[in-house]
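Glycosyl transferase
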Amino acid sequence: MGDFYQNGVVTTLHNLSHRSIDDIEAELLKFSRTRPMALVLPCLYSELEGPALSNIVDELAKVPYLSEIVIGLDRADESQYRHALEFFSRLPQPHKVLWNDGPRLQAIDAQLQGENLEPSELGKGRNVWFCLGYVMASGKFKSVALHDCDILTYNRELLARLIYPVANPNFNYQFCKGYYSRIANGTINGRVCRLLVTPLLRALKKVFGGDEFIEYLDSFRYPLAGEFSLRTDVINDIRIPSDWGLEVGILSEMKRNYSTNRICQVDIADHYDHKHQDLSAADASSGLSKMSIDISKAMYRKLATNGVVFSVETFRTIKATYYRIALDLIETFHNDAVMNGLSLDIHAEELAVELFAENIMKAGLHFLENPMETPFIPSWTRVCSALPDLPEDFVREVSLDMEEFSKR
C-alpha cells in the first residue's frame, strides 16, 4: 500500500485502498460510452516468442472498455506478420497490427523521407510515433494508453489504473505517467533510474540551482517507466525522440506544452518485472551503456533550451558531483534492501555507477561536438502540414495489410 505524500510539482495518484479491478473497469466502461479509449502496444516480433506477451494478451482479452488495440510490429517478415495476426486474433476487441517493415508502411515511410520527416533511427521511439500517428489519424478515440510487451508480472489492473486519470472526464489531466516498485527475484532492479537518473538530477540541481525542468523531472517516481497515457489531442504537437531518450523526451515535451497541473503520475503495480538489458560496459552502442548516454544527452538538450550554457569544465563538474551522490545512494539502497529481506550486490552497483559516470562525460562531449543534432521525430502537426493526405493513406494501408495477410 502506498503512502499519500505529494512530492514535487506533479500530482501523484496513489494506490491507497486496493480498489477492486471490477469496480474500476465498470467505471471505465461507463466513461468509454462517450469517450472511446485505445491501447498502443509497441513490440518486436521476438516478443511474440518470449515469456510475457502471451499472458498480456490473455489479460487484455478480459478488458471490457477498450474500443481498439493498436499493435506496432517491428522486425517481422511476411510469414512473421501472418503469425502475428493469428497470435493477436484471440483479442475480442477490434485491433490493428501495424506491419512496420511491410511494403505498404515502407511506402508511407518513403513519403516521409521525401520531405525529410522520417524517424532518424529504428527502435521503440519510431514504433511509438507511428502507432500514435495511427491513433490520431483514425480520429476515433479520446484517450490512449501505452505499455511495453515484455512485462512478466502483467495483469489488467495495470492498464485500468494507467488510463483512468486521462479517461475520467471529471479530471483535467492531459498526460499520466505510470510508476511502480522494481522488486523481483529478491532484489531491487531499475538500475538506470536509481543509479543514473536520480543522482544525475541531484547533481544538476547542485551545479545549476533550482532549474524548473530539473525540479519537474525529479517529481516523477519512475521517470523511465515505459507506461503512460494521454488524451489524444496531445498527440499532434509532441515530438518523440527516436533513441533511448524516449521517456525523458516525452516528459520534456509535456512540460513544454502544458502546465504541470495537467500532468500526473499513478501507482499502477505493486511489483513489476520485465526483460533486463545488459550493462554492456565494453560497448557504448548497446544495452544500459547506450541508454545512459542517450538519457544524459536528452537532459542536456532540454537544459540548453532553457538557457543553460555547457562547457567541458561544466561536464567534468557534473560528472564528479554525480559520482559522489551516486555512491552515497548505493548505501541507501543497500540498507533499504537489507531491512526488507532483499539482496543488493554492492560491487555490481558500483560498477554500474562507474560506467554511468564515464557516459555522463561522453554524452556531454557528444553534445558539445554535435550542437545541431535533433533526434526528435517531427510532430504529426508538421507531417500533416507537409503531407495532408498521409494520415488517411496510413489508415487505409494498415487495413489493406490486415485484409490481405489475414487470409489463409
